[in-house]
Design goal:
With 450 residues, the chain is of the alpha/beta class. It has 15 helices and 18 strands. The chain has a six-stranded mixed beta sheet with strand order 4-5-16-13-14-15, sandwiched between helices. A five-stranded parallel beta sheet has the order 12-8-9-11-18, with helices on both faces. It has a three-stranded antiparallel beta sheet with strand order 2-1-3, covered by helices on one side.
Length: 450
């Protein structure tokens, strides 16, 4: 990748952290200061829910080469501190996949483990970026345990980031996602794993997590509502723009909750406001994995509302996909500032990708580029193939392909990868019958005995 022409390292040696952002409500326009005692996750005004967006004093993209990971763009993160020794995405111009698809400006934004390319994310997922930013947002002296709900990848990323930053956390994951729970690094004893068993899916884990977060000693991390999460992930677009010297014309990503895509859109708006990287909006191309495609179906029907899906069917469908991390029954699609607004603003497109298409796309990437992909990233590559076949993107357009995860085969070959054992297991019926307190007692008892 040639050096960026338009971006220079920051004029200040260190980013100015603290008081460098406010949180704006897209619905009522109110601007709020972040809170010191906990995380402000929603607008206190009396109106339907919205996603608070960080507004930064610094209007220009500033690069801090001395900082690592997401903190390279610290001026555009809602944080109170930076963390060292973390990893960021790697951007390079594709030769192999690009020539197979007839594209001349294909940028691969790779988050994962691929040492030959300089990608060193040991959890093999771009969720590391959101975990870094969320940990950076936690105020000093924070005493409660952060409750993080996940379908797998997010839990892996928070396990690593919270362990390194010394932040207590409880990760809540559906049992069928346990195969995704592994670690190549150490785990702090203050980071605990709760598994929701039975027929539980991601939505159940979210529900269990929100019940736990309401009890003393726990705080909700907030998921998509946490602006740090979104701006951490949005650094993939900043990295692509830094490398290309321009905002990409097209952006491809697979979506489960859509939070990463909302983040990409928000980052592109900041870059437009900067003014040095072009004036055209970046078009979102987002993909879901058949048969679990509620957002793709709603968007194609021109609807802000998600289709009503019978719960039993949603559970069945969520287990029939190749990429289970892409199944969220309650994604921030309709909410103000959510995915519908993002797609509407940029004239975006959504794709429905079969398991077979994803598998073939993953194989093509591995053959042409040389690294194995996470199933969700395979879905994104398959969407790019569909877009090329449909003639939706020009051969010379600047295309950013967000490879949200990859390199698991590599890290398994080079490092000791351990399966994670849960600290507590319950099912939703059990939780309702016994109550949250009883489940937490069990967790604390284990803490005492271990
Ligand atoms: Zn508001």
């Amino acid at each position: 990748m040639e050096a960026a022409t338009k971006v220079q390292a920051g004029d200040e040696a260190r980013p100015r952290i603290g008081g460098h952002y406010t949180l704006r409500c897209p619905l009522c326009g109110a601007q709020h200061e972040d809170r010191a005692e906990d995380l402000l996750l929603s607008c206190p005004e009396d109106h339907p829910p919205s996603l608070l967006r960080a507004v930064y004093r610094q209007k220009r993209l500033v690069i801090h080469p001395e900082l690592s990971g997401a903190f390279r763009y610290a001026d555009w993160l809602p944080i109170r501190r930076t963390l060292s020794g973390v990893s960021g995405p790697v951007v390079y111009r594709s030769a192999g996949l690009a020539s197979a698809l007839g594209l001349s400006n294909l940028l691969i934004v790779f988050s994962g483990f691929w040492p030959e390319r300089g990608a060193l994310m040991e959890t093999c997922t771009f969720k590391e970026l959101e975990a870094q930013a969320v940990c950076g947002r936690i105020p000093a002296g924070w005493s409660s345990s952060l409750v993080v709900c996940s379908a797998g990848n997010t839990a892996r990323a928070f396990l690593q980031a919270c362990s390194r930053a010394g932040i207590a956390a409880l990760l809540v994951v559906p049992e069928h996602c346990l195969p995704l729970l592994w670690s190549a690094g150490g785990r702090s004893p203050f980071v605990r794993l709760a598994v929701v068993g039975g027929e539980a899916d991601y939505a159940d884990a979210i529900q269990a997590g929100s019940l736990i977060a309401q009890t003393d000693g726990f705080s909700a991390e907030g998921g998509a509502r946490n602006a740090a999460r979104r701006d951490g992930m949005g650094t993939t677009v900043l990295a692509a723009t830094e490398a290309a010297g321009a905002i990409p014309d097209h952006y491809f990503q697979a979506v489960g909750s859509g939070t990463g895509a909302i983040a990409a859109w928000e980052a592109s708006l900041r870059l437009l406001e900067d003014g040095r990287f072009g004036e055209r909006k970046m078009k979102l191309h987002l993909a879901q994995n058949i048969p679990f495609t509620p957002m793709a179906d709603a968007w194609r029907a021109g609807s802000r509302r998600l289709p009503e899906i019978h719960e039993a069917k949603a559970r069945r469908d969520s287990k029939a996909v190749r990429a289970p991390v892409l199944t969220n029954r309650a994604p921030p699609y309709s909410v103000a500032g959510g995915l519908y607004d993002a797609l509407s603003d940029c004239g975006g497109l959504m794709y429905r990708i079969s398991n077979k298409e994803a598998e073939r796309a993953g194989q093509l990437f591995e053959d042409r580029e040389g690294c194995d992909l996470d199933p969700a990233a395979e879905v994104a590559v398959a969407a790019l193939i569909q877009a090329v076949e449909a003639g939706s993107i020009g051969a010379r357009s600047v295309v950013a392909l967000n490879i949200t995860g990859g390199g698991r085969k590599r890290i398994e070959a080079t490092a000791r990868v351990e399966r994670l054992e849960p600290d507590v297991r319950f099912d939703m019926e059990d939780l309702r019958a016994r109550g949250v307190a009883a489940v937490l007692r069990e967790l604390r008892q284990r803490e005492v005995s271990s």
